[in-house]
Design brief:
The chain contains 13 helices and 20 strands. The protein folds into 2 domains: 247 residues, Purple Acid Phosphatase, chain A, domain 2, CATH 3.60.21; 126 residues, endopeptidase domain like (from Nostoc punctiforme) (endopeptidase fold (from Nostoc punctiforme), Alpha-Beta Complex). The longest helix is centred in the N-terminal third of the chain and has 21 residues. α5 packs across α7. The protein is 30% helix and 26% strand. β16 and β17 form a beta hairpin. Strands 4-3-2-1-11-12-14-13 form an 8-stranded mixed sheet, with no helix packed on it. It is α/β, with parallel strands linked by helices.
Length: 435
């Protein structure tokens, strides 16, 4: 009996740790158009979870020691700049060797590494970089690029894309024409699953865009940007660490109806009503009611039953749900267990009969490494709380299905295969065909 009791206690502790680790998880990222910008802002760079930058020249024997300056930064580099890709095979190989020696993540070279994956503070990241020379994947390889991005999104939490659009022909464009040419490609990346796209190559600053609740940085020049995203990659807020006034003016000029707001101090905020942006805000609001007691028929804000809680929270964001778990199960679109997202509704059968819909909760977080999820709901014995699905045999046996109330924001991303690493050979093969 002691063994069983201690086992239950251990499971409860693990469940609480999982819930706490997933709760309101965000990540702080810094983007620099040029790695050299990090020298003057090294102290601020150290505060970020990850720093993304573009390498504008191959590492030579005279500059390789400079990489030691970034040893305290979790640095990720885009290598698709033409200044790198047009180097000799010896120069590029030397650059790769030095980056590996310095333990710096990188992507952008077709024959070496189009993309990479890594983890930081409990989140999985996917990073890929594309360019405008044959040594990198380019816009002409859009089918391969979309497949890479969708597979990265399937395997990771946040996908970041770097794009170096710095060919001589591209740089002859006027600012407006250059931007229009970029928009098609950057939107393609976000539609495929990218969460952040940052572009380098244009000599002057270009605007920011919030597209489908994902941030696109069209050109930074001498600006340094810090942003914070939710655990699913949706933009939350940010600020300029260097510059910003020129980008602010351009953003208002080119995207006057944008939900991205910038103040005089360089602070970035989102007024987005995109589905995943709403989901993050909805969960933040839902968590405020933890500990409120359960009452049959309760619809809040002081007391709730299960469907009263879900309908109350959704109503705060303009979605009308009936005060009935069975009726809620008839709404929205069906969602498979392995495709759950925060904000989805999850349903369970009645405890007495094991039949019909008897309980509903809201998915709070999803762990892509094992398919587990947490959900916030009105428990009959403990009120509003967050439960860990996989540690509760009670809920596992009663699970019926899930529904998505929010309209789809981006096309459904279903990879052809889960083997993302095996896809490197495809991109290398395309390189041989291009040449």
């Amino acid at each position: 009996m002691k063994f069983k009791f201690s086992t239950l206690i251990l499971l409860w502790i693990l469940s609480m740790n999982f819930c706490m680790s997933q709760e309101n998880k965000t990540t702080k990222l810094i983007f620099a158009g040029d790695i050299d910008l990090l020298h003057s802002e090294s102290s601020k760079s150290n505060e970020a979870d990850i720093v993304f930058a573009t390498l504008k020249a191959n590492v030579s024997s005279n500059t390789e020691s400079n990489l030691n300056k970034y040893k305290d930064i979790n640095l990720v580099l885009s290598l698709s700049s033409s200044h790198v890709t047009k180097g000799s095979q010896t120069e590029i190989s030397h650059t790769i060797a030095e980056l590996q020696k310095a333990n710096i993540n990188y992507a952008g070279l077709r024959l070496f590494q189009d993309f990479t994956t890594f983890s930081s503070k409990g989140l999985k990241y996917g990073f890929a970089s594309f360019g405008s020379t044959p040594s990198s994947l380019t816009k002409k390889d859009s089918v391969i690029i979309k497949t890479i991005i969708s597979r990265l999104k399937f395997k990771t939490d946040i996908v970041v894309i770097g794009y170096s659009f710095d060919s001589p022909r591209a740089l002859k464009h006027k600012e407006k024409d250059y931007l229009e040419e970029l928009k098609y490609f950057t939107h393609l990346c976000v539609d495929a699953g990218a969460d952040i796209v940052f572009v380098s190559g244009y000599p002057s600053a270009l605007p920011l865009e919030l597209y489908c609740d994902r941030l696109i940085i069209y050109g930074q020049a001498k600006n340094l940007i810090q942003i914070e995203t939710s655990y699913d990659g949706a933009f939350q807020d940010g600020k300029f660490l260097m510059g910003g006034n020129d980008i602010k003016e351009l953003t208002h000029e080119y995207f006057p109806l944008s939900s991205l707001q910038m103040d005089k101090k360089g602070i970035l905020k989102s007024n987005s009503t995109q589905p995943q942006g709403i989901a993050q805000k909805l969960l933040t609001e839902a968590a405020k009611y933890r500990g409120r007691p359960y009452k049959s028929g309760g619809s809040g804000p002081k007391q709730f039953d299960c469907s009263g809680f879900t309908s109350f929270v959704y109503r705060l964001f303009g979605f009308s749900l009936p005060h009935s778990s069975g009726a809620q199960f008839q709404m929205g679109t069906n969602v498979k267990r392995n495709e759950l997202q925060p904000g989805d509704l999850v349903f369970f059968s009645r405890p007495a009969t094991g039949r019909g819909v008897g309980h509903v909760g809201i998915v709070y977080s999803v762990d892509k490494t094992n398919g587990n999820f947490t959900f916030i709901h009105a428990s009959t014995s403990r009120g509003i709380m967050i439960d860990n699905f996989s540690s509760s045999g009670y809920f596992i046996k009663r699970y019926i299905g899930a529904k998505r109330i929010f309209p789809e924001k981006r096309p459904e991303m279903v990879p052809i295969s889960n083997d993302i690493d095996g896809f490197i050979s495809i991109s290398k093969k395309s390189n041989l065909q291009t040449k």
